[in-house]
Design brief:
A hairpin with a 7-residue loop joins strand 14 and strand 15. The protein has 184 residues and is mainly beta. It is 0% helix and 54% strand. Strands 3-2-4-5 form a 4-stranded antiparallel β-sheet, with no helix packed on it. A 4-stranded mixed β-sheet has the order 11-8-14-15, with no helix packed on it. The chain has a 4-stranded antiparallel β-sheet with strand order 10-9-12-13, with no helix packed on it.
Length: 184
């Protein structure tokens, strides 16, 4: 689970509290969930009776899934992204997950190079791209434009690791847009 909500939350799965006071920008470790339909409830930590979101999700025994909780103008979104686990030895993989609902679709470009991921919109993830380990400068542009939303950031992609690059924040606010690299 990743909490991109601006306050502490509690998370219940099938009426059992799994996270208490899960802080903003919090990232949990992977854990095993029962194989069947699970009910997830998201509650503000300071208001045990207030429900922000209730959603049923289906889990099968082969799934590895990243769940992301985001805020939108319409409330809370609980998004899920299947996570790949296969990686050839001494290689790396990278995908992009767009989690900024106030930001239009983006292209991810290599500095002085090509567009690597095109037209990634809110709530979507790209396929994984298999790569040799490297350090790379990536930047964000509005899709099909030279309008830079985020300048180039130096990312180190190590051998035998699978990564998701999260696009988070709000391009219209003071804190702005950010890229967060996490290991899957």
């Amino acid at each position: 689970f990743i909490n991109l909500v601006s306050k502490n939350i509690d998370i219940k799965i099938n009426d059992t509290e799994v996270f208490n006071h899960f802080h903003p920008n919090g990232l949990s470790e992977y854990f095993i969930m029962p194989t069947h339909t699970n009910q997830i409830e998201i509650i503000p930590s300071d208001e045990s009776q207030a429900l922000l979101k209730r959603q049923n999700i289906e889990i099968n025994h082969t799934n590895y899934v990243t769940f992301v909780i985001t805020e939108t103008d319409n409330g809370i979104d609980l998004l899920s992204f299947p996570t790949e686990q296969f990686l050839p030895e001494d290689e790396t993989k990278l995908r992009i997950i767009h989690l900024s609902n106030a930001t239009p679709a983006v292209d991810v470009k290599v500095k002085h190079g090509d567009t690597v991921f095109s037209n990634v919109s809110y709530g979507h993830a790209t396929d994984y791209l298999g790569l040799s380990p490297m350090t790379v400068d990536l930047g964000l542009n509005i899709t099909n434009s030279n309008n830079t939303l985020l300048p180039f950031t130096r990312l180190k992609l190590q051998a035998n690791e699978i990564y998701s690059l999260l696009i988070v924040g709000d391009v219209t606010k003071k804190d702005g847009l950010k890229m967060l690299l996490i290991k899957d």
